[in-house]
Amino acid sequence: MKSIDIDSISDKMEVDDVASLKNKYIEGLKLAMDSDTAVVDEVVAESYYEWVIEDWDKLCEKREYSPEFTIGDYKWRILLFPRGNTEKEFVSAFLDNLDVKDENAAENSHVCAKFVLSIRNYNDYTIFSSKPSHHRFNGKESDWGFNRFIEKTQLYNENKNYIKPLIEDNKTVVSVYVRIYKDELGILWHDFANWDSKKETGYVGFKNQGATCYMNSLLQALYFTNYFRKATYQIPTENETPANSVPLALQRVFYNLQYSNQSVDTRELTKSFGWDTMESFTQHDIQEFNRELQDNLENKMKNTAADGAISRLFRGKMKSYIECINIPYNSNRIEEFYDIQLNVKGCKDLIESFDEYINVETLEGDNQYMAEGHGLQDARKGVIFESLPPVLQLQLKRFEYDIERDAMVKINDRFEFPDRVDLSKYLSKDADKSIKYIYRLHSVLVHSGDLHGGHYCAFIQPKLDGKWFKFDDDRVVPASKDSVFEDNFGRSAQDNERNMKTRITNAYMLAYIRETDIPLILAPIQDSDIPKHLSERIEREKMEREKAEQEKKEQHNYILDNNVISENSNRLDLCNLEMKQYPMSHLKEYKRGKTDTVGAFKEELAKVYGVNKSQIRFWNVVRRQNRTKRPELPIDENDDMNRKEKKFLDMVPDFNEMKGFPKDTQLILFEEIKPDMIEEIPLKNNSIEAEIGNGDIICFQKALSQEKEEKLRQSPNSIIYIPDFFKYVRNKILITFKERVDKEDEHFVPASKEYLEFQLELLKTMNYDEVARAVAKYIKLDDPMKLRFFVGSNNNDYIERKDDIKLNQLINSTRFSANSNTIYYEIQDIAITEMEIKRFINVKFLNKHHQEQKTYRLLVYKKASVKELLDLLKQSMKIDKLGKLRLFTVNNGRIEYVYNDEMDIQSLGSTSQEIYVEEIPEDQLNVQLQECIQVIHFKNDISNYHSVPFLLKLNEGELFVDVKKRIQKSIGMNDKEFAKVKICYISNNTSQYFEEKHDDVVIYDGKNQISGCIGLDYPCRNHTTNSYEKAVKIHN
Hints:
- By secondary structure, this protein is α+β, with helices and mostly antiparallel strands.
- The protein contains 25 helices and 48 strands.
- 23% of the residues are buried.
């Protein structure tokens, strides 16, 4: 018989319970840590550590470290601020890594870890508070955690969260669970503050000009298509300049991508496109830009070594066919393509989208095919590929028109694409079977955002070796397969709605390379493939930049001397280096060491100018109060300064000798105090009396006889005396005139081709008429008043003719600052003086279905009547049989006012209204407007209006079903279209929809006054793109 120790069993059960509670506690910490952020990386180590604090009050006031502990191969400590770090109301706690701040640690030494810090009751694992985080521990940030770890008030008090205090009997336990990740790519939780793309990846990115991320992404994909890059290098560009040559600018971009250590600037490239700053800040569609760029290069490659390279790379062929089912008849058409647009909506992945692309449609019933010579026949219709190119560019249709919303929308649906795909089954039976149509994914271009904007980046596998990189403007980083594929498939219906960025980020364009062509397409670029002139020019420019940078660094060791001699004076002031409103001086600059002597500098200049050293004198130049710069004192103190003061009359022979005039030539002398202050010097005065000293400027001219002066004054803007010349120099300005082409304006008269663009030197003080006379004289136009000036190509940019407005005011006004010294002109067959009493009115003429047919720009007297305007419209339309016309205005989708013939036109076009003219329908010729109701068009909401509203006569006792028929006839819809139109009655901005049961209802009894309007709810049939969408165009 054995004895049983009840106490020992009880103790063992308690130990087991504590161990179980501890395990649950640790599992709880791990769950809290997992909730922090998801990581797809290999875990190299994880463990738990606890720091038992026996006497909390003995902890120091500032900071306290736990004993060191090891997790993985790294040493750690818990850093605690018992009295708070930044806020005294909180305890602060951090995890500190010792290895990354070791003085022997490697430069980029780091540890990536997730962790959870916790404080718990000394005796109870169920009473605790914890906080999770993650960090990339490195030399700059070796510790990480929480300034607000826990409020001090929660440490000792029992509350609804804790049945015991966290610190009990002055004891507690602070613990941490740490999980360390391998960081295979080297970028986990990287802040990229000092990221060097070239050093870390071997590649560089592009600088973003403002909204050129779409272009940057595509250029990277094309750059790493080595065959394309090599073909671009083969375009001859020796005699071209980057600003005007797209091939040369692109060659320079590609060269810099290959050899530069810094991100590459694309401003030179966009300038070669003929783009201005605004164009660079406009985001365009990648596919549209891709085709425009390839078309441009393909034309430049003709008759060169690169001829046909674009088509060899990207061109495939597809056959559109129709095959009759019951008779031997078919119709085929072979088409070329450079990219394929695939549906995203309704397709699970790339294969389903290709399946849908070649899906066969059966034409039967009402949709039978009209076979020539055989009548209507049942048929099969579809497309099949005859060949696929070596580089297959796939455009995923992420943007589509939504008929329900009547707007373009982005499709963010999940759409999977593989790393490797076999497309053989999509080739026709006549395709070349010797070619294996197996493709590898080379690049993924990604869009993050919505229809109205967003950001583009590219994921590229440059060598198809499994190593992916993300090219995001100027930053290039390694990328995981998950970030390439899963993160860019798009969202699924089950995705967490919380992460908005994930939901709107997805692949937009894919580029696959045929496996058998990979050696050719990705063959490395050799130095011999790069044009010699290109590399030499870029390297020379690089050396010049480095030299300039080095000189800038050494600038403090030197002084710069600007040398002024008579040959480089601009004849206005001694020299001008600051005031940009006047001609600038072009002075020779010398760099001298600060310890060089004046004598050595004199010897150098004597050789440069071929003069004796004794003839050179240096002067100190000082800035006067009138903002001019004047020589003050000579630097050579041995020069003789004691000169007897002469009267200026005695100096006249010296001045004549300087200019080669006869000695007895009479002169007039002036002092140039500053460019806009020129005063005559009395010849009887000496320099003291005239207050003229060293550095002051004397100007002189021949004296004029009274007869010659009077003759000169007969010419406008004549220059008689020196002050007149200075006034001319101050006010002269070079203006570029460009002909403004407006082919739709019937009053437009084209100028001769030689006058499409020219420059004239004018005066800023000229008024409108003087400018007009100068231009008319140059282009040989008899009547200057037939000229009209504009500051842009828009009709609203015209310059109003006013006598008090000078050319200076015009070019300096805010309205015209964007095109400062350019004025557009047009020649009209009507003098501007006539236009001062007339005005242009744009009138839109409607067809019988109330649709805009044509816009007429009519010039009418400002006080004309509506009848006179309509008569002028009839003359412009040149239609013999035209019924009675009606003019009305529309504002915000509704008819604003209907004009009768006797009213004047002064109020027309004064607001945002549109002016329409229509033939009055026969049933409205002899009725009052009160007998008609307005019909408007909208989609879903009455504020979302479209199309042109119209008037409909209501007949007494007419059923609604008949009114519907008249509406349908009036707007010209067939039965199928009109069946989708919902009709409602609108009054006080509320709508009531008619239903089929209302067909037998009489909507007008002839007794009550007609009010409100009828609304037609349907999508606009003439859907256009957003007015802000501007087509991309490469001009050079």
